[in-house]
């Protein structure tokens, strides 16, 4: 079926006038009439009939108008959908984030974003940095947010640094090292509570020990979440090495204490990772833009 001719028929049926249809479509009346005759010939059915000085729909024309209304209404919906998608009003953002940004940054980012783009769907996977990178490379997510060192991601990935946060050694306020200045060699003799293998902070800790020729720390307790890690240290067991963003409030409240390790002043870099040379969808791009505007949540 000739959709152009069907559209002409639809406008005629909607306005009840070839003259009005001609004005709306900016097409001459003879051209419209010729297209309608051609459509009727193609269908083998009369769609319009004379009625006084005007025209009316035949029975089949009336039925066809019912279907054309649905068809062109869907067309309008499609056009609106594409426009909204292009403007970032619709879409689906798939995000992988490590525990630190997932708990302390992403909720605020999402709240700000959804207040502007409520119809954009969002899926968030909370994992460690190794798995976050894997999900990005395997096309399972659109972007990944985590901390780490530049050399930990391949050339096919683009990293954009958002901000830096200090990494602290923390213990219970009752620990003998609470508030003290000690050497790294003494610090690593303590039992540590850390995240699982694959955590970027844990890898930083191991790299730090190798750099200073210190023995590898004894990971006495291992958790898959930051909260559990911090709570174990608050309860009085061992020490941990963690982003200040996670424990600053606990330190200010006196539930944890810093240990100042001589010669160690490390920063945790939080970055947004995307696949290089792959354009982001409009919704994802708007989300990244929002993070740039509010990097600290």
Automatic annotation (TrEMBL):
Keyword DNA-binding attributed: yes
Residue span(s) of domain HTH lysR-type: 1-58
InterPro entries referenced in this protein's UniProt entry, alphabetically: LysR_HTH_N, LysR_subst-bd, WH-like_DNA-bd_sf, WH_DNA-bd_sf
Any one Gene Ontology molecular-function term assigned to this protein's record: DNA binding
UniProt keyword annotation of Cell inner membrane present: no
UniProt entry keywords in alphabetical sequence: DNA-binding, Transcription, Transcription regulation
Transmembrane segments: none
PANTHER family (alphabetical): HTH-TYPE TRANSCRIPTIONAL REGULATOR, HTH-TYPE TRANSCRIPTIONAL REGULATOR GLTR
Family: Belongs to the LysR transcriptional regulatory family.
Protein name per the record: DNA-binding transcriptional regulator, LysR family
Organism per entry: Paenibacillus barengoltzii J12
């Amino acid at each position: 079926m000739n959709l152009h001719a069907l559209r002409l028929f639809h406008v005629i049926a909607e306005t009840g006038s070839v003259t009005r249809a001609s004005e709306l479509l900016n097409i001459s009346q003879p051209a419209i009439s010729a297209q309608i005759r051609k459509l009727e010939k193609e269908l083998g059915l009369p769609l319009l009939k004379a009625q006084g000085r005007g025209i009316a729909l035949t029975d089949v024309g009336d039925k066809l108008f019912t279907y054309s209304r649905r068809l062109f209404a869907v067309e309008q919906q499609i056009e609106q959908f594409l426009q909204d998608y292009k403007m970032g009003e619709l879409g689906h953002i798939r995000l992988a984030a490590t525990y630190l940004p997932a708990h302390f940054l992403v909720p605020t980012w999402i709240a700000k974003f959804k207040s502007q783009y409520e119809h954009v769907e969002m899926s968030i996977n909370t994992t460690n940095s190794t798995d976050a990178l894997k999900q990005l490379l395997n096309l399972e997510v659109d972007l990944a947010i985590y901390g780490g060192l530049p050399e930990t991601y391949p050339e096919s990935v683009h990293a954009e640094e958002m901000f830096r946060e200090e990494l602290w050694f923390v213990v219970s306020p009752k620990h003998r090292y609470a508030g003290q200045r000690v050497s790294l060699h003494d610090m690593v003799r303590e039992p540590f509570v850390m995240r699982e293998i694959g955590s970027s902070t844990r890898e930083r800790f191991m790299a730090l020990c190798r750099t200073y020729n210190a023995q590898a720390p004894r990971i006495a307790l291992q958790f898959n979440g930051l909260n559990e890690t911090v709570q174990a240290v608050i309860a009085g067991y061992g020490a941990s090495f963690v982003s200040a963003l996670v424990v600053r409030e606990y330190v200010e409240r006196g539930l944890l204490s810093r240990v100042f390790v001589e010669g160690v002043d490390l920063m945790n870099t939080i970055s947004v990772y995307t696949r290089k040379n792959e354009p982001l969808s409009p919704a994802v791009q708007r989300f990244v833009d929002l993070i740039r505007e509010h990097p600290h949540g």
